[in-house]
Write a structure and sequence with these properties.
The chain has 261 residues and is α/β, with parallel strands linked by helices. It has helices spanning 6-11, 24-33, 44-47, 59-72, 91-104, 118-125, 142-145, 155-171, 183-192, 213-216, 238-251, and strands at 16-20, 37-40, 77-81, 108-112, 131-136, 175-179, 197-200, 208-211. Helices cover 40% and strands 15% of the residues. It has an 8-stranded parallel β-barrel, surrounded by 6 helices. The structure holds 3-methyl-2-oxobutanoic acid. The site of 3-methyl-2-oxobutanoic acid has 11 residues, from strand 6.
Length: 261
């Protein structure tokens, strides 16, 4: 699986199974389990570094973990998060830092934000850097959003989200993560844009799903969000849990209604 196949997968109705990954050993296990894409998420600030948010993650952290994942993943797409403060100042700043993540082994970078980031997305994609957008609950804005909350619940917010998604698509984004948005909104948004959507707490109709690996293996000591399923329950090994995740995403069994808003 590589990034070029994503659209074809969506066109033939095959769901895209994505997991976060931060090291070489898990990258190999995930690739062997059939995960389609690995996301080196800045969630590593919480699940690896023990912080309360993603805000303190540095570009150096992201380069290090991207390099580790790239050593373990032989033939699978790697998306790396651009950390807080590494891309918001200007498109030039974003290009300089995105290039460092690509040099570390990423095939695509992910950044948070809608229309306000469109010029930056255009700047990166027109210079050879594939970009994944991230809308809905955007963890780097946790303080502005007033905590971990579902986004797009009222008509005005839902319309803004749709407008943002279209702006990112128009600017050249190749993929879009939707986090903590009502299932109905994610479904209609997915139908209205032409790039694949990857949901996390965004219902079953997205083109794919992503979970934080520590959540789906049940090893994060913090609060478990409603959209998480612990795939270690009933699994004989980590490998079996990863394979079950892939199988349930592909079949549409995960997420169930109880995992959605
Ligand atoms: O950092 C991360 O793990 C993410 C996912 C929650 C999508 O951005």
């Amino acid at each position: 699986m590589n990034l070029g196949n994503l659209k074809q997968m969506t066109e033939r109705g095959e769901k895209i199974a994505v997991l976060t990954c931060y090291d070489a050993s898990f990258a190999t296990l995930m690739e062997d389990a059939g995960v389609d894409l690995l996301l080196v998420g800045d969630s590593l600030g919480m699940v690896l570094q023990g912080a309360g948010s993603t805000l303190a993650v540095t570009l150096h952290d992201m380069q290090y973990h991207t390099r580790c994942v790239a050593r373990g993943a032989k033939n699978i797409g790697i998306i790396s998060d651009m950390p807080f403060g590494s891309y918001q100042i200007s498109p030039e700043q974003a290009l300089r830092n995105a290039a460092r993540l690509m040099a570390a082994g990423a095939h695509m970078v992910k950044l948070e934000g809608g229309s306000v980031m469109a010029d930056t997305v255009r700047f990166l994609t027109s210079r050879g850097i594939p970009v994944c957008g991230h809308l809905g609950f955007t963890p780097q804005s946790v303080h502005q959003l007033g905590g971990y909350r579902v986004q797009g619940r009222n008509t005005e917010d839902a319309e803004r989200l749709l407008h943002d998604a279209m702006a990112l698509e128009e600017a050249g984004a190749g993929l879009l993560v939707l986090e903590m948005v009502p299932a109905g909104l994610a479904s209609s948004l997915t139908a209205q844009i032409n790039i694949p959507t990857i949901g996390i707490g965004a219902g079953t109709d997205c083109d794919g799903q992503v979970l934080v690996m520590h959540d789906m293996l049940g090893i994060y000591p913090g609060k478990t969000p409603k959209f998480v399923k612990n795939f270690m329950q009933g699994a004989a090994s980590v490998q079996a849990a990863l394979a079950a995740y892939v199988q349930e995403v592909k079949s549409g069994a995960f997420p169930a209604a109880g995992h959605s808003f």
